[in-house]
Predict the 3D structure of the following.
Amino acid sequence: MAQATTTGLETREYQLFINGEWVAPRSGETRERRNPANLNDVVARFPWADEADTERAVQAARAAFDGGDWPRMPARERAHVLLKAAARLREEAPNLAVLLTREVGKPIREAFGEVLATADVLEYYGGMALDVKGEAISNFVPTAFGITIREPVGVAAIITPWNFPLLLASWKLAPALAIGCTTVSKPSDLTPCTTFELARILQEAGAPPGVVNVVTGDGPTVGGYLAASHSVDKIAFTGSTATGRKVMQAASGNLKKISLELGGKSPNIIFEDADLDEAVQGALFGIFLNQGEVCQAGSRLLVQASVHDQVVERLVAATRALKPGNPLDRNTTMGAIVSQAQLEKIQHYLEAGQKEGADLLVGGQRLTGGEYDQGYYVQPTIFDGVRNEMTIARDEIFGPVLAVIPFQDADDALRIANDTIYGLAAGVWTRNVDTMFAMFKGLKAGMVFGNCYHSAGLSQLPFGGYKQSGIGRELGTHGLDLFTEVKSLQLRLH
Ligand code: NAD
């Protein structure tokens, strides 16, 4: 493994992280990750594991769970590791943010925010480790006493996507470690670096060998192996709905516990009585954060017909003012697309929108010329006059493409909003509290934002989706439940 990050700009060399050691994959094979914003920049070389390498990591986690100290040590010792790692992440945030920007292509300011948010998650679950408790039942019958206790589920496999690689790893690792699980993480092969760094930091903070393992390689090979392994007790997956379905099938062999955070096509709904300046800003933030590569992106903008023209006019003006470009430049507001394949997928939808008759208001093209030719850049794009049955309103594009759909009244908005296979998030902009609550209740989504999008600052609220957006809720106490078994104890009294 490479030396500790010094500038964040060198080519990092990683090995598999198994049983507290950096080890070469059996094949000796490595892959390169290049910065999608500048393909001349080799961010890292990392190992390409096969099934046998993955099995090695699983067995290390198994041994650390079945016979190691981690699940058995006083909770405060596990808490201490998480709190120390959180502090370390904050110290290293400037360099980690550069590394994160280089592996994903996201603007440096957003990357910095992701590192700090990751530290918050470790700290939060560090605190929660101290407060894991069950119930006592003394008054059901006079002749018995009942107790419930909470135990770690065992070996947890953690499979993560490329869009928020550090933060999403922490949403799973932190609660898993807090309760005493041991783990094998498999980051996306597009963005392996920050997961390796997180493992290094956790080890330096005191996580014993075998508790945190990281394996990189082909998704179906390594991820599929983890999902199917009978030595794994729990799988926590974030990724596309299509892959989530495969993980669920593979996990059925030993009926391992599963939690799935999947795709979305979330509605962001602007009513005529909203503060339109705020709503427009929220709509832009909702779709263009992280180049639109966000599971809960507000990719369908539902606008009440009476204010449609003024909203659209402001949206277009604000979109033209965005600064796509080198994500390491602090003035950049939109970075690069993560890969050529993702860029091509977005381009496919840019064409589909026009073919299906949506009005292209702004954007619609790959960005070229100058620094844009060094990476994968696309214009922030808005389609108007979209009907909810069009492909660009139904499929998750996972790019900076907004579909504007007009609606007449609240019933109409709800009907359109809920007409999707997904149910991850939704936004509502109105000053009318009755309308707001009617939407809060009526929207079929795991997370609904009122007069904000993505977050109002309550970053530990449960996160997850209805319908095909997933199973289970991460973050908060719900996030801990995903890695917990509940045991009921009954004592007959004499
Ligand atoms: P993906 O489904 O292609 O890959 C996700 C992870 O699964 C990667 O690590 C990949 O290597 C691995 N994988 C691939 N095939 C596998 C298999 N057969 N078995 C096990 N693992 C396998 O997703 P992606 O392109 O990396 O990420 C984008 C997707 O993630 C989008 O659909 C997005 O909505 C979703 N996402 C959801 C959330 C959420 O919290 N709901 C958050 C971020 C991203």
